[in-house]
Hints:
Chains A, B: Keywords: DNA-binding, Repressor, Transcription, Transcription regulation. Chains A, B: It holds the Pfam family LacI. Chains A, B: This is LacI family transcriptional regulator. Chains A, B: One of its GO terms (molecular function) is DNA-binding transcription factor activity. With 344 residues, chain A is an alpha/beta fold. In chain A, 44% of the residues lie in helices and 17% in strands. Chain A has helices at 5-12, 16-23, 31-44, 50-57, 71-74, 78-94, 116-122, 137-140, 143-151, 174-187, 202-215, 233-246, 257-269, 304-319, and strands at residues 62-66, 97-100, 128-132, 156-159, 168-172, 192-198, 220-226, 251-253, 279-284, 298-301, 328-331, 334-336. Chain A has a 6-stranded parallel β-sheet, with helices on both faces. In chain A, strands 7-6-8-9-10-12 form a 6-stranded mixed β-sheet, sandwiched between helices. In chain A, β6, α11 and β7 (220-226) form a beta-alpha-beta unit. The longest helix of chain A has 17 residues, at 78-94. At the A-B interface, α4, α5, α6, β2 and α7 of A face α4, α5, α6, β2 and α7 of B. Chain A binds a DNA duplex (16 and 16 nucleotides) through α2 and α4.
Amino acid sequence: MEVSIRDVASRAGVSISTVSRILNNTATVSEKKMLAVKEAMEYYHYEPNQFARGLKKQTSNMIGVYFPNGADSIFEVSYYLELLKGIEKVMAYQNYSMVLISESKETESRKKHTPKYLEYIRQKRIDGLILSGLTNKSVEDNADVVWQIMEEGYPVVYIGKRVHKEGLNVYAQFEQYNVQMIEVLRNSGHKKVLLFMARSHNHYVKGVMDRIHSEIPDMEIFLRVTDSHFEPRDHVLQDIKEYVLRRGCTAVCARGIEDAQILLSVCAELQIKVPEQVSLLSVEHRYDAGTLLYPQVSSFYVPAKDMGVGAAELLIDYIENREVNETSIEYETKYIERNSIRRL
Amino acid sequence: MEVSIRDVASRAGVSISTVSRILNNTATVSEKKMLAVKEAMEYYHYEPNQFARGLKKQTSNMIGVYFPNGADSIFEVSYYLELLKGIEKVMAYQNYSMVLISESKETESRKKHTPKYLEYIRQKRIDGLILSGLTNKSVEDNADVVWQIMEEGYPVVYIGKRVHKEGLNVYAQFEQYNVQMIEVLRNSGHKKVLLFMARSHNHYVKGVMDRIHSEIPDMEIFLRVTDSHFEPRDHVLQDIKEYVLRRGCTAVCARGIEDAQILLSVCAELQIKVPEQVSLLSVEHRYDAGTLLYPQVSSFYVPAKDMGVGAAELLIDYIENREVNETSIEYETKYIERNSIRRL
DNA sequence: CTGTTAGCGCCTTCAT
DNA sequence: ATGAAGGCGCTAACAG
Lengths: 344, 344
């Protein structure tokens, strides 16, 4: 049996407006009625119906989270997981909830399919949107619509390199820390380095390589651009054989701890000692993730969880019309030296 | 500017009911009006307001997912991640979305705080709920309410050992495969085994130990019950020193690949060879996760993703009043032999 | 096949 | 301080 504001009102012997006032404490109500209403609410376990409330207020207290890069990778790549953790944390204390929006598979029916996250916005299911990884096709196809939405002032925060002048934005210095990784290795005397990058970052690749070539011209970089965020183990095995054993790379840069772990396992299999025979430098998105491996791996720490927190807070502030003093927040990357790099 | 069904109707020169009928294709409409309406919908980028629709139908096409064990662990333990993947997959093709429900921190204000997932149910935000890990306090405190909801026929599927006769349920044979792990080791000649279990599984511990003692009496089990789903590295280091080096365990059972990875790294640090000096047997929730390590670790595979799929499908079938032939699905665990166990 | 209309549950003026 | 009443956008009878 569904209980509505009416039931509460009648049990408490007041009108529904009084109940409503108490719910939203939008006016003072006499102590007596107050108590009666509270009693009735508890009695019925009353909770206001969100459809009705939303119909009036047009707000759902839900925010959408859309990471396009394939459903599975969201739950495998620690970068995304840390972002989610951060977002989740904010949701918990701000009394919002997050809706994970996944692209619905085949909607062949309509040719020009509206992506789900736009649908959710127009349907008012969500009060705001957190986006990351806009290199994905489904978004590029709809870039104009996304922009339009941002321009209309719809609350959107984008995590990553800014794609549009409007909207809120949170990012780390991807290009910069990739260059710094090479610098670190150069400073330890390395000259030939194997560098992994994900194809989804391919719009960064040129920038990174150009800067390396101009700023650190004496380095020989072997670039491996791969489809996913981390490589299947047997590919990595081949890569190590090719670039470390055959071509003589003395160091490898991993994109994340997942990569680093596989690299270490492959090296163990090939009986290549780290760091004695090959050095390893990684990126870590979870703080101290590098200490879980052996040897502990030196890393650039990208504070992904903080970025998630920042994104969510920014979004909610904006939604609730609070002051948003910055529309774009940059997060610092920190180098943590451990024991996986050998000084040549 | 918000566009409503009325705008569409007037531009198409029809009544709102005609538009509604087309939206829900709930009756046949003349070709001509059909086209006019479609045109108007595209023109306005019309999407039906979910509040209004929900107010009428009392259904949101969202399902709640609540895993109590602390927000962070959800995004760290591959068991939960695989469940999420499975659920997510179903959401995508069933046109539902999932709301991750996290306990809101301190709501000291009300003493007897209604947990958020119950709130969401009563507020009609979600059409059904997927729960896992009910050992958590916040749920135990509200066990009566949860049961009441299940008895009222509210759609809930519980992932794990059934806690109540009502409701839908999906589970793996936790007790059984834990015993089988010990059997596998016994069959390879091991007599002293270090076994990790999570505190959140402590209601299983007695059952597992009793069965081991009665079915495999010649084994000496050292049980380590830990707070989280996987141990901090330095704890593991101490454990290995204590149980393997000092007390002479010849094999270790890990609760998941996260554990196994740390164990391998610790063994590397202590220069203990796997499997030559100590054998390792793990549980894996992601298929073939054990092959990413070196040596590849023998595992009991728990099909967590399939369980997530099963849970979500069961739930949606139930919500949509389709036939639910089984109310409880058991998933088989599979032993995969690799290279981490030495025959003594 | 199509239009008119009565709510769905809540919030919010407007009176009192 | 409180109650009555209109309307948010949509669906589903009901009438034609």
